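REQUEST ID: PR-0412
SUBMITTED BY: lab tech R.K.
PRIORITY: routine
TASK: structure prediction, single protein chain
INPUT:
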Amino acid sequence: MIILTAAIKAKKGKEAELEKVLLNMISKTAQEDGSMEYRLHKSKNNSGSYLFYEKYIDQAAFDAHSSSEYCSNLGAQIKDLIAEEPVIEFYDFIDGIPE
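STATUS: complete
OUTPUT:
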């Protein structure tokens, strides 16, 4: 299983535009066979801060997502909308609910 987060910070005044682009990723990713979870969150404490939580069944599913046309084009779509480079972190599942 591949689990990661991607933290993305919008430039001031670009929040709505960035959010629209990020929301567009959800419907496309939902069609992928190995995508288990793909959730977008908006910070209540830090305006313009977004967090994706992503879970893929295996490395092949993550690689397919990463190499998809819409994912590959995301960087170009958001480059003028973000305040800094996204921070991507990979995780190992330990325990939790409902699992």
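NOTES: The radius of gyration is 14 Å.
REVIEWED BY: pending
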